């Protein structure tokens, strides 16, 4: 039987101290090819170290990726793609949220302090309406907005 080489305790540390995770919020329309260009992170090189991880999310949520910094120089960074979240910004049957319907909305009078209000799944969403009709109208707007 061979002896098992065990990992040294000094090599087992909390990842945030070793990996240095950063987040990059990039403009809408940015592509994976854009962020992998060696000069893309040129203004951030002072913060970058080999081994660190960068989570990239575009403002339009179309690009959602994790990168590993392999090397840096004074003007460039070489990166490896760890994950690209497929379908970022695209709904599929697995990612589609169930629709909010008026069946899950309740309009009632909450007393003199809250006045007319509407609740979604027994949670007060908005209160302070003078009439029941105002609360009902606000609830309908809420449902429309929740469903996009």
Topology at a glance:
Blueprint: H1 15-19, E1 21-26, H2 32-36, E2 53-58, E3 64-72, E4 77-84, E5 105-109, E6 116-120, E7 123-129, H3 132-146
Parallel strand pairs: 1-2
Antiparallel strand pairs: 2-3, 3-4, 5-6, 6-7
Can you give a write-up of this model?
With 148 residues, the chain is an alpha+beta fold. It has three helices and seven strands, in the order H-E-H-E-E-E-E-E-E-H. A four-stranded mixed β-sheet has the order 1-2-3-4, with no helix packed on it. A three-stranded antiparallel β-sheet has the order 5-6-7, with helices on one face. A hairpin with a 6-residue loop joins strand 5 (105-109) and strand 6. It is elongated and about 70 Å long. 11% of the residues are buried.
Shape: elongated
Give the terminus-to-terminus CA distance: 63 Å
How big is the Rg? 25 Å
* SS class: alpha+beta
Q: Element order, helices and strands? A: HEHEEEEEEH
Helix content: 10-25%
- Strand order, sheet with most strands: 1-2-3-4
Oligomer state of the chains in this structure:
single chain
Give a quick account of the main beta sheet: strands, pairing sense, barrel closure: 4 strands, mixed
DSSP helical segment count: 3
Q: Total strand count, please?
A: 7
Mean pLDDT: 85
Low-pLDDT segments = none
**Which percent band covers the strand fraction?**
25-35%
């Amino acid at each position: 039987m061979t002896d098992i080489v065990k990992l040294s305790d000094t090599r087992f540390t909390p990842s945030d101290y070793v990996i240095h995770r950063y987040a990059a919020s990039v403009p809408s329309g940015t592509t994976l090819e854009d962020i992998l260009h060696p000069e893309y992170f040129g203004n951030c090189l002072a913060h970058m170290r080999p081994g660190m991880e960068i989570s990239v999310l575009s403002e339009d949520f179309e690009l959602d990726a994790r990168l590993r910094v392999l090397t840096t120089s004074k003007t460039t960074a070489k990166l490896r793609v760890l994950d690209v979240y497929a379908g970022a910004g695209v709904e599929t049957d697995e990612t589609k949220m169930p629709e909010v319907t008026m069946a899950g909305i309740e309009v009632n009078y909450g007393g003199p302090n809250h006045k007319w209000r509407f609740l979604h799944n027994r949670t007060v969403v908005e209160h302070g309406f003078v009439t029941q009709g105002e609360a009902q109208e606000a609830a309908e707007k809420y449902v429309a907005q929740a469903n996009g």
